[in-house]
Specification:
A 5-stranded antiparallel β-sheet has the order 2-1-5-4-3, with helices on both faces. The chain has a 5-stranded mixed β-sheet with strand order 7-9-10-12-11. The chain is of the alpha+beta class and 539 residues long. 23% of the residues are buried. Among the domains are: 106 residues, Signal transduction histidine kinase, dimerisation/phosphotransfer (DHp) domain (Helix Hairpins), CATH 1.10.287.130; 183 residues, Histidine kinase-like ATPase, C-terminal domain (Heat Shock Protein 90). The longest helix has 57 residues. Helix 2 runs antiparallel to helix 5 and helix 9 runs antiparallel to helix 11. 55% of the residues lie in helices and 16% in strands. Strand 11 and strand 12 form a beta hairpin.
Length: 539
C-alpha cells in the first residue's frame, strides 16, 4: 500500500475550500455557532453548578446550626439544681441529638473535639469522639475559626476519601459550652455526591444539547445555502455553456422572487447577446466570403498583368530610361501585390477553418539551416551576420515543414530589416515534449505599446520605414495562425535599443499537451557581452 501523501490531500482540501462557496459558508457558520454555543453552555454550567452548591451549602449549614444548638441546649438542661451534671449521659444524648438533627442520606459523620487550652476539672469521656471522620479533612484554618467560640458555624469544601473512590463533601464546624467541662468543637461532614451527580447530568445534557444544536444549525445552513446557491450555480453553468458557444442555453424561470428576476434578466441578456453574436457571425462570414471571392477573382487579371509586366521587364533595356524605370516599378509592385494576395487567401482559409496540417518527421536544424541560407543574401546586403545556436536535443518532430519554413522566413526577414546591421542569432532546442526556435536580433527593438499590437493584422511598427521583404502587415498574423494550427505558441520579447526576440514553441506531435518552452525568452547568449564590448570600442 503506497504511503499517504498528506500534501496531496491538503492541496485538494485547499482547492475545495477555495472553489466551494457552500462549504465555506457552512463551515464558518458551524464554527461560529460552536464557539457561541460553547460559551453559552459553559456559562449555564457554571451558573447551575454555583447555584446547586450554594443551595446545598446553605442547607447543611442550617442543619449543622440546628444540631449544634440542640446539643448546647441539651447540655444546658442536663445541669441539676445542685449545679452538677452527668457528663457521660449528656454526651451520649448529645450525640444522638446531633445524628437525628441531620438529613444526610449517607449517614452523618461527626466529631466532638475538646478545644485546646482548657483547664476545667471535668471533661467529656472520651475527650474526642469521632464517627467515621478522617481528621485530615479538618484543616487548622477551620479549627482556628471554630475555636473562637463566637456562636457561629463555619463551612469548608473538602474531598472525601472512600473505598469506592472520592466524593465531594462539606465540613461544618461550631463550638458548644459544656457545663463544668469547658468548650468543645462539633464538626459535621456531609457527602454531597447527590449534588455532583445532578451537576454531571446537567452538564451531560448541555453537551448533548449543544452538539445537537450545532448539528441542526449546520444542516439548516447547508439546506438554506444550497437553496440560495443552486440558482447561482445554474446561472454559472449556463454562462459557461454560452461561453462555449451553446447560445440556446437559458436559465429556468420559476416564481417571482429576486432569483426569478435574475433569471429573467440573464435570459434577456443572453437573447440580446445571441442576436448580436449571430449578426456578427453573419457579417464575418460575408466579409470572409468577400475577401476570398475578391482574392480568387483578382488572380486571373493579376496573372495577365504579371505576364505582360514580365514581357515589359525583360525588354526594359530597349526602352527609354523613363519607360524602363516604369517597367521596373510595375514588376516590383506586381510581385508585392502577388504576395499580398497570397497572404489574403491564406488568412481567408484560416478564418474559414479550412487550413489543414500536412505533418511529417522533420529535422528542425536542417530546416532552420535551409531558411538561413535563403535569407543570407539579404542579410549580407544589410551587413548582418547570421548565427545558429543548436546545443543539442531531440530535433526531429512531426510538423508541417512548409508552414514552419514560412514562419522562419517571416521572422528572419523581420530580424534582418530591424537588426541595424548587427548579428541575428537563431536558437534551436527541444525536450521530450516540445521543440522551440527563437530568432534574436540586436536592433532598434519595440516599445511596450508596439509589443501589444505586433501580431495585429495589417499593422507595422513604422509604416514609413524602408523594408526589403515586402511588408504587407500580415506576416506575423499568419505566423501566429500557423503556430496555433500546430497547437503551439509564438511569443515575443523586445526592448528599445536592445533588440527583439521571437520564440516559436511547438509540441513534438500535433495535439499533444504543450508545456514550458525549452528556450528562455530572451535566451541567454554570450553575444550580449560581445556586442557591448563592440559598442565600447566604437565609442
Amino acid at each position: 500500500m503506497p504511503p499517504l501523501d498528506w500534501r496531496h490531500w491538503l492541496a485538494r482540501a485547499r482547492r475545495l475550500w477555495r472553489t466551494s462557496l457552500q462549504l465555506r459558508t457552512v463551515a464558518i457558520t458551524v464554527a461560529l455557532s460552536t464557539v457561541a454555543v460553547t460559551i453559552i453552555s459553559g456559562y449555564m454550567s457554571i451558573s447551575i453548578a454555583t447555584n446547586l452548591y450554594e443551595a446545598r451549602k446553605q442547607q447543611v449549614i442550617a442543619e449543622s446550626r440546628q444540631a449544634t444548638a440542640s446539643a448546647q441546649q441539651l447540655f444546658d438542661s442536663s445541669v441539676t439544681q445542685t449545679g452538677t451534671i452527668d457528663l457521660e449521659t449528656a454526651n451520649i444524648t448529645a450525640q444522638t441529638t446531633i445524628r437525628s438533627a441531620t438529613s444526610n442520606p449517607g449517614g452523618t459523620q461527626y466529631a466532638i473535639v475538646r478545644t485546646p487550652g482548657q483547664s476545667t476539672a471535668q471533661i467529656l469521656q472520651p475527650t474526642t469522639n469521632f464517627r467515621g471522620i478522617d481528621t485530615s479533612i479538618i484543616t487548622p484554618a477551620l479549627q482556628e475559626r471554630v475555636s473562637a467560640g463566637d456562636g457561629a458555624v463555619y463551612a469548608q469544601a473538602v474531598t472525601l476519601e472512600l473505598p469506592s473512590g472520592t466524593d465531594p463533601g462539606i465540613v461544618v464546624g461550631g463550638a458548644i459550652e459544656v457545663p463544668t467541662a469547658g468548650q468543645y468543637e462539633v464538626y459535621l461532614v456531609y457527602n454531597v455526591r447527590d449534588v455532583q451527580d445532578t451537576l454531571d447530568f446537567v452538564q451531560q445534557t448541555l453537551v448533548i444539547g449543544s452538539l445537537l444544536l450545532v448539528l441542526t444549525i449546520g444542516l439548516v445552513t447547508f439546506f438554506v445555502v444550497r437553496l440560495a446557491i443552486e440558482p447561482v450555480r445554474i446561472a454559472a453553468d449556463t454562462a459557461e455553456k454560452l461561453a462555449a458557444g451553446q447560445l440556446e442555453e437559458r436559465i429556468p424561470e420559476k416564481g417571482e422572487d429576486v432569483i426569478a428576476t435574475l433569471a429573467r434578466s440573464f435570459n434577456r441578456m443572453a437573447d440580446s447577446l445571441q442576436r448580436q453574436i449571430t449578426q456578427l457571425a453573419d457579417l464575418s462570414r460575408v466579409q470572409q466570403r468577400f475577401v476570398s471571392d475578391v482574392s480568387h477573382e483578382l488572380r486571373t487579371p493579376l496573372t495577365t498583368i504579371r505576364l505582360a509586366g514580365d514581357v515589359l521587364y525583360d525588354q526594359r533595356d530597349q526602352f527609354p530610361p523613363t519607360t524602363a524605370r516604369t517597367a521596373e516599378l510595375l514588376h516590383t509592385q506586381v510581385e508585392r501585390f502577388e504576395i499580398m494576395l497570397g497572404d489574403l487567401l491564406e488568412m481567408s482559409r484560416f478564418d474559414a477553418g479550412a487550413a489543414q496540417l500536412e505533418t511529417e518527421p522533420t529535422n528542425l536544424v536542417r530546416l532552420v539551416e535551409d531558411s538561413i541560407e535563403g535569407i543570407r543574401p539579404l542579410a549580407e546586403e544589410k551587413g548582418s551576420e547570421l548565427r545558429l545556436v543548436a546545443p543539442g536535443g531531440y530535433f526531429e518532430a512531426d510538423v508541417d515543414a512548409r508552414r514552419l519554413r514560412r514562419i522562419l522566413q517571416n521572422l528572419l526577414g523581420n530580424a534582418v530589416d530591424h537588426g541595424e546591421g548587427r548579428p541575428v542569432v537563431v536558437y534551436v532546442d527541444s525536450d521530450t515534449k516540445a521543440v522551440a526556435i527563437a530568432v534574436r536580433d540586436y536592433g532598434i527593438g519595440m516599445s511596450p505599446d508596439e509589443l501589444e499590437r505586433v501580431f495585429d493584422r495589417f499593422w507595422r511598427a513604422d509604416p514609413s520605414r524602408q523594408r526589403t521583404t515586402g511588408g504587407t502587415g500580415l506576416g506575423l498574423a499568419i505566423a501566429t495562425e500557423d503556430a496555433h494550427l500546430h497547437g503551439g505558441v509564438l511569443d515575443v520579447w523586445s526592448a528599445e535599443g536592445e533588440g527583439t526576440c521571437f520564440r516559436l514553441t511547438l509540441p513534438r506531435r500535433p495535439g499533444a499537451l504543450l508545456g514550458e518552452s525549452p528556450i528562455d525568452l530572451p535566451p541567454a547568449d554570450p553575444l550580449d557581452g560581445a556586442l557591448a564590448n563592440e559598442e565600447g570600442g566604437r565609442s
